Amino acid sequence: MSQLTITVNGIKVCGNRHEPLLTQLEKAGIEPEYQCRHGMCGACRCKLISGSVTQQDTLAFVGSNEILSCCSIPQQDIEISFDYQPNRNLKVTNTKIAL
Ligand code: FES
């Protein structure tokens, strides 16, 4: 089954194993900061607390246990955190909340 759970700053949403993490968060109504969406600026950086992702080669600096959400695809349930609380778009009607 390709569905998985993404926990971001304590909020659980449903995810998958084929789209970039940033895209999945946006579809779930969570709006992390970003600029380039191609691994160059580092604006989408977050900490990977648990789980694993595949991440394509990037130019932006990432510290240990950090990933770029625009270039990372979850491989299993993951928990991540941003240093700030991302905005949430509560008007999204197809938001899926993991139980
Ligand atoms: S948005 Fe620029 S590295 Fe992800």
From TrEMBL:
Transmembrane segments: none
Gene3D superfamilies, A to Z: 3.10.20.30
Residue ranges occupied by any 2Fe-2S ferredoxin-type domain in the UniProt entry: 2-86
Any GO MF annotation of the entry: 2 iron, 2 sulfur cluster binding
Name this polypeptide is given: (2Fe-2S)-binding protein
